[in-house]
Design brief:
With 144 residues, this protein is α+β, with helices and mostly antiparallel strands. The chain contains two helices and six strands. The chain has one domain: Thiol Ester Dehydrase, Chain A. β5 (118-127) and β6 (130-143) form a beta hairpin. The chain is globular.
Length: 144
Amino acid sequence: MDVTEIKKWLPHRYPFLLVDRVVELNAGESIVAYKNITVNEEVFNGHFPQAPIFPGVMIIEAMAQASGILGFKTMDKTPQDGSVYLFAGADKVRFRRQVIPGDRLQLEAKVISKKRGIWKFDCTASVDGELAASATILCADRKV
């Protein structure tokens, strides 16, 4: 899935669309996507100009967006259908390495459970096979 198709499944837009490509998607099971980290990211104007580090909260949001694509595709719903996939929580969050300009952040999410519109995903973000962050992400499917 390229960014044009990703925009059909996620309501996010620049500068907050944090998934550049989906390379693997198994509906109801898992997704593998990535975000290219470039020095031109708006966030690097303040975090930190002399030593740019992609913020941990943005890594969590990128994992949540990849999870959102997986959830939307699994349900065969889009934001245009009047559905929004809200980030409802993050548990067991851990950061292992810094993410800097030039890195390709690989995002992986696996469905753990789905109950009453609340989805739980096991997520990781890595760079060149090295774990950068992990979390259990909760998303809620709601009508707009």
